[in-house]
Amino acid sequence: MSLPNLNNDVPKYELTVPSTQEVVKYRPFLVKEQKVLMIAYESQEPKQIIDAMLGCIENCVNDITVKSLSTFDVDYIFTQIRSKSVGETTKIVMKCKSCEAENDITVNLSEIGKNIKYPETLIPLTETVNVQMRYPTYLDVMDNEIMFTENPSVTDILFENLYTCLHSVKTEEENIPIKDEPKEEIINFINNMTNEQLEKLQTFVQDLPSLKESVKFKCKECGSDETIELQGLQDFF
After folding, report:
1. Which of 91, 106, 136, 199 is the most buried (most CB within 10 A)?
2. In this predicted structure, what is the pLDDT of residue 197?
């Protein structure tokens, strides 16, 4: 005798994709998706975690191209799916800055990422040359070996992020897609910038949207009033 197929009436919700303002429908994840996520998080392998997260979104969200989503879009969408799957709050353990006692803090996931500012993507370098930047995807992250090496330098990370976020260079005569240029040409282009021009690109990278929340709590041990800045998906789970 075969076990019955559970045709559960899974509720549907709506969310707005942050970078595009597109409204999509989604469902909570099921046990089969949760199992894959748990195995990935237990592995502590970043690429496996990213792959599991993307797969979960692909299964749970209607009519969305996961590969084209920015990293922030993915983090936000996954957080919303999780909040409807296992609860709208999550508990994290934070150390008091004063006495280092561990405190259990409750964070409301449904409110995370609501008021994000996006940096301007078109950056003028000269009167005739502009750079069009783009938001990186998790596929970009997975293809960036520097991000998965032990103790990469801050400089290496910065410049790899710059390469990833460069979309095109616009002059008065043409628009040159970066993806069509050899990396040596891109490096040469950046190396010939002034410090002021480079700083504009660095500011874009540093201001990329991310899950961010300031959490205030009173230490259970010493009574100190603390404020912790949570940033990035890893800080919330």
Report:
1. 136
2. 96
